[in-house]
Amino acid sequence: MLAELRGLNEECGVFGVWNHPSAAQMSYYALHSLQHRGQEGSGIVVTTGDSLQARKGLGLVTEVFTAKCMEKLQGTGAIGHVRYSVGGTNGYENVQPLLFRSQTGGIAIAHNGNLTNSLELRVMLENEGSIFQTDADAEVLAHLIKRGGNTPLPERIKWALTQLEGAYAFVLLTETELYVALDPYGLRPLSLGKLGDAWVVASETCAFDLIGATYEREVYPGEFLTIKDTGLSSEFVAKKASRALCAMEYVYFSRPDSNLRGKNVHTARKKLGKALAQEHPIEADVVTGVPDSSLSAAIGYAEASGLPYELGLIKSRYVGRTFIEPSQSLREQGVKLKLSAVQGVVKGKRVIMVDDSFVRGTTSTRITRMLKEAGATEVHVLIASPPIKYPCYYGMDTLSASELVAANYDLKEMREMIGADSLRFLSVDKLQEVLGSPNSRDDHGLCLACFTGNYPIKGDDHV
Ligand code: 5GP
Ligand code: SF4
Ligand code: MG
């Protein structure tokens, strides 16, 4: 049960807009640009001013929303969600936003992250009479909010937030307000922008670019925003904590055209590639990346090493991400479907293959084989992040240490396993040097827990 609950809400994307005549349409486009954060389900809830309308479903944004259903979603405020999940619980009921109706009005909630005390809270709430319909953390928040009785809604939401532990970026919508909350560590990214007279909030800034919004600032760790017709107000409700933005957002999750804390993700990845070349210079003929996620790092490696950057691998545009497949065998098939080696580029060459991260080792194994089958004389696998050795409890899909190759094997064993001529990783020190310091009081604090085992949230039952 606990593992199942932990496995939810992975790497999702959230969006919110207030005071825009086409709030649902803006959400549709924004969710489209956040689609890389989750492909299993998507939803939009819009307010007409006195009622909330929802449309959601399993699948991609373009599959869930037809032109006809968008016509029905009329209103000036909206929230949206794209969902990624692993494990068995990927049914319709878990697709967000979740919409709750009560005598006093409705509330819709969408969440990115993972609460570390959700099981505890569920047990407590169930003991007191709540019944849950979903496995989503958003439902835990809804029940907590309802427990506040007749005190004003913002007070109840703020109290409920103080009961939560773990990672969260929440957007909440009522008929007359949009609320936004980020956990005290700022584990998940969340940005605030303006679109004419409208306020917008999104997991990534690439959503702003698509709809023509301008970036205002990050939502601060522990911040609670109330946005309504009279304007925006900001408060800090959660206890003060050290900043710990997920380092994997820079390494893999976020889109290269997004900015995180003002740093462009592509540029950050390129720097990681450069740092990798400094740490691990290797004699070879060409450098190639694994489309699309490691191309920036591969370009950085090539630039710093003086070796030519080549398209050694081509990706089919029409297959989903390998990681989303439920089983190892399906994942392996997925990689095969997705990528092919370019013989004309790699034949007879010593190839440096730069990837962004190493989790189960599936991608590195398949690609090394593929490159060798295409005639590469040597394949050197260089990973632009440190080995992932520890499970993430804050929203990434690594449920147990047993699935993490680097938690169970040493470097030599891993190199043999993937069949490469060498295997090298970026050091934690270099990663920090490029991206910021670990879990610090300043704004550059990072979570590095899956690399180091130093979890930013103390007192968890998971460590
Ligand atoms: P592996 O193949 O070692 O299990 O996972 C690493 C590879 O999968 C990388 O190429 C990375 O781009 C890709 N990948 C897909 N989804 C994810 C994810 O959710 N997290 C990480 N770290 N990598 C992922
Ligand atoms: Fe991100 Fe890793 Fe921290 Fe999870 S443990 S939040 S993936 S840095
Ligand atoms: Mg990749």
Biggest sheet record: 7 strands, antiparallel
Total helical segments? 18
Number of strands: 23
Number of domains: 2
Strand content: 25-35%
Helix-strand category? alpha+beta
Task: Describe the overall structure.
This protein is α+β, with helices and mostly antiparallel strands and 463 residues long. The chain has 2 domains: 2-241, Aminohydrolase, N-terminal nucleophile (Ntn) domain (Glutamine Phosphoribosylpyrophosphate, subunit 1, domain 1); 267-317 and 327-433, Rossmann fold (3-Layer(aba) Sandwich), CATH 3.40.50.2020. It has a 7-stranded antiparallel β-sheet. The protein has a 6-stranded antiparallel β-sheet with strand order 5-6-7-8-12-13. Helix 6 crosses helix 7, helix 10 packs across helix 11 and helix 12 (328-338) crosses helix 14 (362-373). It is globular, with a radius of gyration of 22 Å. Mean pLDDT is 91; it is low at 1-9. Guanosine-5'-monophosphate is lined by residues 11, 248, 252, 290, 293, 321-323, 355-364, 397.
Kindly summarize this structure in a few lines.
By secondary structure, this protein is α+β, with helices and mostly antiparallel strands. The chain contains 18 helices and 23 strands. A hairpin with a 2-residue loop joins strand 15 and strand 16.
What topology emerges from the helices and strands here?
Layout: H1 2-6, E1 10-18, H2 23-33, E2 41-47, E3 52-58, H3 61-64, H4 67-72, E4 77-84, E5 98-102, E6 105-115, H5 118-127, H6 137-147, H7 153-162, E7 166-173, E8 178-182, E9 191-195, E10 198-202, H8 206-211, E11 214-218, E12 223-228, E13 231-236, E14 245-246, H9 247-253, E15 259-260, E16 263-264, H10 265-279, E17 286-289, H11 295-305, E18 313-315, H12 328-338, E19 339-341, H13 343-346, E20 350-355, H14 362-373, E21 378-383, H15 405-408, H16 411-418, E22 422-425, H17 428-435, E23 446-447, H18 449-452
Parallel strand pairs: 14-23, 17-20, 20-21, 21-22
Antiparallel strand pairs: 1-4, 1-10, 2-3, 2-4, 5-6, 6-7, 7-8, 8-12, 9-10, 9-11, 12-13, 15-16, 18-19
Helix pairs in contact: 5-6, 6-7, 10-11, 10-17, 12-14
The chain binds guanosine-5'-monophosphate, iron/sulfur cluster (SF4) and magnesium ion.
Residues 290, 293-294, 355-356, 363 line the site of magnesium ion.
